[in-house]
User: Fold MerR family transcriptional regulator from Aliiroseovarius halocynthiae.
Amino acid sequence: MKIGEIAERVGVSTDTLRYYEKRGLIRSDRHTNGYRDFHKDVAERVRQIRLAQSLGFSLTEIEALLSTLDSTIPVDQLRQVLDEKLTEINQRISQLKQLRAAINLRLEQACPLNVPRG
Amino acid sequence: MKIGEIAERVGVSTDTLRYYEKRGLIRSDRHTNGYRDFHKDVAERVRQIRLAQSLGFSLTEIEALLSTLDSTIPVDQLRQVLDEKLTEINQRISQLKQLRAAINLRLEQACPLNVPRG
DNA sequence: CTTGACCTTAGAGTGCGCTCAAAGGTGTAG
DNA sequence: CTACACCTTTGAGCGCACTCTAAGGTCAAG
Assistant:
């Protein structure tokens, strides 16, 4: 797939895709004319990158995680790295729940009769 | 409290606190000598700002949320704004769970006998 | 009365993650 | 052959959230 096709599918600019490639987050082959040729799986990969980014992970962190997932390191090492990431994600979930609780609390203060949702 | 005390308590720089004040996220009185005098509640407020930031919210978003929480608008308007924010937080939680599921899946592929945690 | 840790301001600089501009090559339709 | 949408590269520019620099004021201890 050409760069414009991926860009339109995922909803990012072609500049962003070239930037991600330069950073090593995605890869491409080349057509004989020099155009990039992306495997269609790249679209899903970029979606995951954008998801992780929106959740507060930096490209450097995402890069590290993806390269671990891509690597052929021993399974127990992979498990260790991913377990750490899962712990981090679980922490973030509970932090978000904290934030939610704080907002609910403020809502109850303002309006004691209402029952908080969540 | 002087700016350095708040900074040390929360673990941010004094520059960051001055920046937040300029942006309107926090307030201070002044001593007669010109030094800022922060109410001690500001420490907790700054902690909440850092928490929200680490979860992917921009200062502009946080500013909007905090000014709503600070305001004396009618309760039903407040409820509406906060409900929207709660919906957003719930979405983020489920996105994080998605990310966690994706990692767990990858872990199972690498190591079929293990049971995923979460 | 000086040293040193704190505070003030204005304004410049930094790193991240894009985003745009310039100058040019490719490919298809009319 | 021309127009036009696509692609290429290099390098500059931008907004965000700080972070640092310069030049100076405050204040308690020795």
The two ends of chain B are 42 Å apart (CA to CA).
